[in-house]
Amino acid sequence: MPQASLLPRSRLDRSRNYWEIGIVLALSLGASAVYSIVSIVARLTDTTPLVDQSATLNGSQSPREWLDFTYQFLGIAFGLAAVALVMFLLWRPGQNPFTRLGFDLTRPDKDVLGGFGLLLIIGIPGLALYLAGRALGFTVAVVPSPLDTFWWTIPILVLAALKAALVEEIIVVGYLFTRLRKLGWSPWIIILSSATLRGSYHLYQGVGPFFGNVAMGVVFGWCYTRWGRTMPLVVTHWLLDILSFVGYPLALAWWPGLLAPAS
């Protein structure tokens, strides 16, 4: 009789976990993936070739400087709400969610070293793939930062990079891996599912970034499975985006033919 009463509860817990995952993703990167899929369909069916299209990140939100700053800052702050949500959902009495996901300062030296190592493994091939995609015509021109800058532009770009790193690595790796393990998914199914999701919400940038981010997701997923820590992944992602956002004007000067959006 006790065993019979446990079965419905087990099914209820599984159903609740799937619903929770669905809601979290619908409020964050799952929604981004859906919009990104619609975007790539629109791009591929447009009369303008993919190579002549562009995608702007961190663009100006207002012609008035103080409003632009305000909108940018609020977007970053509220964008972290989904991270706070998953931390709350993972919190249990006696179980620190930061410790559960390996997002703490217990081993800063190893985390920073691992982050820089992953940056070399991911960053250089990622840039090469992007440039190849631009040359071959299956990647749009990604404009990661505005060319007109104010005194606060670089700090805001650094914060935007941190937000992207936290949202993606805490939700798509830390949270999703934790929940899917609880549901009995095998490690490589989790890694591949997470990597596919990562690639999907980058599809608005073109076909090349989809495959590049899937590969990045596989590497990050394998590292998280091995290390049990999101901190080095956040470090890598943050540094990668800082280099992309802040270094864009310099890269544009070096490779204008590949990086410049069509006029």
From TrEMBL:
CAAX prenyl protease 2/Lysostaphin resistance protein A-like domain segment(s): 151-242
Keyword Nucleus belongs to the record: no
Protein name: CPBP family intramembrane metalloprotease
Record keywords: Hydrolase, Membrane, Metalloprotease, Protease, Transmembrane, Transmembrane helix
InterPro entries assigned: Rce1/LyrA-like_dom
Pfam families per the UniProt record, alphabetical: Rce1-like
Transmembrane annotation, as ranges: 21-42, 69-91, 112-132, 152-178, 185-204, 210-227, 234-255
GO biological process: CAAX-box protein maturation; proteolysis
Molecular function as annotated in GO: endopeptidase activity; metallopeptidase activity
Chloroplast in keyword set: no
Organism expressing this protein natively: Cryobacterium gelidum
